[in-house]
Amino acid sequence: MRLARKPLRRxxxxxxxxxxxxPNGGSSAEEGGIVATMSARKRTRRLSAEVRDGFLWVSMAGxxxxxxxxxxxxxxxxxxxxxxRAQEWARSQGATYGQEKAVHKALTSAGYCITSPRA
Length: 119
Known about the structure:
Elements: H1 12-18, E1 19-21, E2 27-31, E3 34-38, E4 47-52, E5 55-60, E6 65-69, H2 76-92, H3 97-109
Helix pairs in contact: 2-3
């Protein structure tokens, strides 16, 4: 048996009480004793990573570009080393965590695996 819920009464003062400006620049919402802080979205530069002409090409918007020669297709240690070097370069250019992982995905999507693929 389901209990009937009371409709939520959201008035302007109740909403303003929950959404108080955070001194750190974000906004904080308090519900039931739990405080969640949302930070402002960080603006990122576009990252492109692709395997082309025997190289891994990684470029950031604005002209920064780097390329690395590809190891043998199934040479796991070489692929791991290349992936780490490319991700470190991307991090030094201000890439986000997801952009760093996109560099690694460009390699795996082209068939360059750290471990042998599962059958």
